[in-house]
Amino acid sequence: MTSTNTFFYYLLSTVYYDSRDKKYKKILTINEKPQGDLSNYVRQINPPKLSPFKTSDRCNSCIWAILCFQNKNDFLTIQKLPDLIIYLKKNGYKIDVETTKILKSDMENNESKIIAFIEKTV
Questions:
Q1: What phi-psi label fits residue 36: left (phi over 0), alpha (psi between -120 and 50 degrees) or beta?
Q2: Distance of CA 95 to the CA centre of its chain
Q3: Residue 48, exposed/middle/buried by CB under 10 A (0-12, 13-18, 19+)?
Q4: Within a 10 A sphere around the Cβ of 120, how many other Cβ atoms?
């Protein structure tokens, strides 16, 4: 008998200052390192402060950024959200629409916005 485990995550759009390009971007992040194929496309980063005058709302400064599928040196931006959704569906991740609605109503701030609640059974 094979046992299975289900893991739950939430995806965020997070404001990030790209010091290389000298501009702000909305990158896609996940709350923790995921199980499954997506783990090959995440990197833990310590993002720079958005402003020297503002303290971060994040309780832990490190975040898990999702990397671009074509170039792992770049972060996946909100403009590439359709690519992420296709990747998730092709690789057995499920998007939980009902839980996403609940989270969106309560878990947003100026730096991050909830995109989706997902699950992966392995």
A1: left
A2: 13
A3: exposed
A4: 20
The pTM score is 0.84
Sequence-distant (≥ 6) Cβ neighbours of residue 91 within 8 angstroms: 36, 37, 38
Say yes or no to pLDDT of 58 above 60: no
> Smallest Cα–Cα separation from 27: which of 36, 40, 18, 39?
18
pLDDT per position as a tens digit, 1-14 = 678 999 999 999 99
The candidate with the shortest Cα–Cα distance to 97, out of 79, 112, 83, 118, is: 118
Query: For residues 63 and 82, what is the distance between their CA atoms, to the nearest angstrom?
Result: 21
E strand or H helix at 18: strand 6-18
